[in-house]
Structure formats: C-alpha cells, structure tokens
Amino acid sequence: MNYKISKILFAALFLLPMTAVAQVGQHRNDFAIGVNGGYVLSNVGFSPSVTQSLHGGVTGGLSIRYVCEKYFNTICSIYGEVNYASIGWKEKIQTGTDQPVINANGAAESYSRTVDYIQIPVFAHLAWGREQHGFNFFFQAGPQIGIYLKESTSRNFETPNLATDGTGRSNVTVAQETMPVEKKFDYGIAAGLGMEYSNRHIGHFLFEGRYYYGLGNIYGSSKKDYFGKSNHGNIVIKATYLFDLTRTK
After folding, report:
1. What is the per-residue pLDDT across 181-202, written as a single tens digit (0 to 9) for each?
2. Which residues pair with 119 in a beta bridge?
3. For position 61, what pLDDT does the model report?
4. What are the start-end ranges of the E strands in the chain?
5. Burial zone of 90 (CB within 10 Å; 0-12 exposed, 13-18 middle, 19+ buried)
6. Under DSSP, is residue 31 helix (H, G, I), strand (E, B) or coil?
7. Three-state DSSP class for residue 64
8. Are 50 and 229 in contact, with CB atoms under 8 Å apart?
C-alpha cells in the first residue's frame, strides 16, 4: 500500500470518531439577563434541637444565564443570581401536652428571628424541551453563598417560661434567643426543579421550587460553644423573567 494512502486512511480512521463526538453537542451562545422574586420558608438546624415552625420571608434580585450547548436533547447552561433574602427561624413554643406556653404577661409566648442576606447561587442548569417557542422542564444545582446584612427579633416576653410543673416549655433550649448571629458568611448547596416558557419575541418565564441546605453555621460549633450545629435550611418558590441579549438561533 502506498505510504501516502496509508497516512490518509490512518488520519481518516483517527479523525472520524473525534468528529462524530464533536458533533454530538450543538454549540450555543445564548446570553440572557432578568429579574426574579419569590417566597422563602426557612428554619435553622440547631443541635441541641429547637422546636420550630417555618419562618416566612421574601426573596428577589437579578438573574443571569448563559446557554453554552445542546447535548442530544439536553440544553446545558450556567445560571446565577444575586438576591436579597429574608430568612431565619420561628420557634414553636409549647408545653409537653402541645399547649401554648403562657408567659408572665398572660400571653402565649412567641419568638422569631429574621436574618437578611445577600445570596449568590451559581447553578449548572439542565433543561429538556423547547428552546424558544414553548415549554421545557429543568433541573439545576450548585453552590450558594450568603453575606449577612442585618437581623431583627420578634418576641412578646422578657424571660421564657421554663416551669417544670407542666405549664412551661417542653423544649428548654433558649440560648439562641439572646445570641446575635456570629458567622457573617454563609455557604451551602441548592437544587431546584421547574418549568420554563419561552417566546423569542417576549423572553423566558421560569417557575421553580428550590431547596437550600447550609453547610456553614450561624454560631460557633467548637467544643466550647453551645451549639454543635446551626445551619440554614430554605424552601424557595420563585418566578423569573429573562430576556435575551444574544441568541444563537
């Protein structure tokens, strides 16, 4: 076999598989920005435990998305946000028989703490369905950081009722009620599921449910500290509007 022909055949056998692999993904260069807003249900995972119901607050901010590739039927992109979020915890104060705990003023004790953050999530965003005209379903997940802004407390008592005669609190962990947030930087992981409707003339409308699990603590967690764990947990329901700045197709 001629040497030049052998080189051509070898090159063809070597390059064809690589070309086939390269052509599996369709390049995209779609860049969109917009706004988002929603509602957050949150609590804090204390250890020792603190009995809680969910704290309600708002969240909203700026959104950005870069679609880089369509791989088979999967639309691959990077999605990020810069949000204001009002989170915290709300205590469920009851006796051992699940009755309200009455304080010295004759009112049922109530306590909640609101902690405001700037939250910045960055997600790998995977979608299946229509890119432009119609609906798609998406999953996204990635890291999130939070920067502490301020906090406020709502309470209707001076001293918690810890009586042992059955009228006091069944959960006697109260140190958190007078402790300000010590750790001003929060971090964790978040993941969400949602639907998107796209119209090339109007933009993109996203509706999502998301969960955030904090890996950091709001209080110290060494052996000398009171709490071994004090991490945020958030359930987020939100809507987002994006409009295209650049679009491949």
Report:
1. 999 999 999 999 999 999 989 9
2. 83, 146
3. 98
4. 25-47, 52-53, 55-71, 74-91, 111-129, 134-155, 185-199, 203-214, 229-246
5. buried
6. strand
7. strand
8. no
